Amino acid sequence: MTKLIYLEDTYLFESEAEVKEIKNTEKGLAIILDQTIFYPQGGGQPTDHGKITTENVVFNVADVRLDEDGVVYHFGNFQNGTIKPGEKVTLKVDKERRINNAKLHSAGHLIAEAVKKLEIPGIKPVKGFHFPEGPYVEYEGTLENPQEYIPEIEKTVNELVEEDIKVEKEELSTEEAEKKGVWAPTGKSARIVYFQGYEQRGCGGTHVKASGEIGKIEIRKISSKKGMTKISYIVE
Ligand SMILES: [Zn+2]
Question: Measured in angstroms, how far is the CA atom of residue 87 from the centroid of ligand 1?
Fold first, then answer.
C-alpha cells in the first residue's frame, strides 16, 4: 500500500519518498513509492502531473492511478537517467493544476449544498465530475423547466463562497461511516469531507481550505432527461 499524503494536505506540492518498485506495465512505465503527494485520478477528479527527481534523474509523471490494493502507480517517462528501488526521490506536483482541481472539486460539493439548501424536490445527488473540461454535479430524478433553477442555485452557491466556510475532513472506520450513512468503498479508508455545518460526504479528493478560495462559480446549464439531472458549472 502506498501512503496517501495528499489526503492530509492539498497544499503540499513537494515532498520526499522512497522508490519501492519500477514496473513495466501494459500502460507503460510506472514508479511505485512508499508514499505520495500525487493525486491518482478517480472520484471525479483528474490526475496530478509533476516530476519525480533525484540529483541526476528526472521522471515526468503524466498519469497517476490507485489500484484495488491501495498501491499508487506513477506513470510517465524518464527525461534522463533511471532510478532503482531503495533510492530516495523528491516529488514535485504541478501546483497550478492541483489548485485548479481542488477548486473545481470543492465547487462541486458546494453546489450540492446549495441545491440541498434550496430544497429543490425530486432530485437526489449521485456523483460529481470535476474535470476542467465541463465539470458538473449529477442527480437522480428530473426537473421541469430545469433552466429556471439556474439563477437561484448560482446566487445561493456564491453566497456560500462569500461566507468563506471552512472545509473539514476526517477519517472514519467503515463502521463509523455506515452509522453516519456515508458511503465508503469497502476495504478503503472512509474519508469524509464537508463544509463546516453542512452535510458530511464520503470523498477521497483534494479540497481547498475554505469556500472563499473557490472564487465565483457560474452555473452554465442544467440538463434534465432520462431520469437524470446534470448541473454544469465553471469556476472563474
Ligand atoms: Zn468529492
Answer: 34
For residue 210, what are the CA distances in angstroms to 91, 100, 107, 142, 195? Answer: 26, 14, 11, 31, 8
Centre of ligand 1 from the C-alpha of residue 43, in Å: 7
Cα four-point dihedral sign 190, 193, 199, 201 = negative
Dist. CA 158 → ligand 1 center (Å)? 19
Q: How far is the CA of 209 from the centre of ligand 1 (A)?
A: 14
In order of 22, 152, 183, 225, 232, the CA distances from 140 in angstroms are: 42, 20, 16, 10, 15
- pLDDT value at residue 175: 80
* Ligand 1 center to 109 CA (angstroms): 6
Give pLDDT, residue 182. Answer: 76
Residues of the chain with pLDDT > 90: what percent? 85
Can you list the domains of the chain with their CATH numbers? 3-93 (2.40.30.130), 98-235 (3.30.980.10)
Ligand 1 centroid – CA 110 distance (Å): 10
pTM for this prediction = 0.93
Q: pLDDT, tens digit, for every residue of 114-164? A: 999 999 999 999 999 999 999 999 999 999 999 999 999 999 999 999 999
Beta pairing partners, 91: 15, 52
Report residue 167 as a C-alpha cell. 472545509
Distance CA 5, CA 172 (A): 16
58 Cα–ligand 1 center, Å: 32
